[in-house]
Write a structure and sequence with these properties.
- There is one protein chain.
- The model has no long low-confidence stretch (mean pLDDT 90).
- The chain is of the alpha/beta class.
- Strands 1-2-3-4-5 form a five-stranded mixed sheet, sandwiched between helices.
- It has one domain.
- It is built from three helices and five strands, in the order H-E-E-E-H-E-H-E.
- The relative contact order is 0.17.
Amino acid sequence: MTTIPTIKNIAVQRARQLQAERPGAVVTQELLEDRAILSVQMNNRVLETDFIESPKSISLPRRSVEYYDILGQGIKLGIIVPRKKMEEEKAKMKRIKGPDRMIVMGYDEDLADRPLVV
């Protein structure tokens, strides 16, 4: 079962990746009750927002509204879910094409220190 420390570890790992991809950008993390949200900003503009979902948060219908709101603002969307839910999430978001618009990644719930899977 995914715990808050697991979500936090994944958020730290992903923040490091994002910082390495965009030197000079500011990466912020917000840890909520059952998920984390990362934002990448450069020159006062949000470039990417990543949602790290738990098994609980992934089942909430509000997620889709949030995701499409981010995409509608021209911000790249990252969705990070438990590995066993990754293909299902890709299928839900199949109409969004291109690595510059969206990426879906998975994590092992028991091994939060393992690399994320694209």
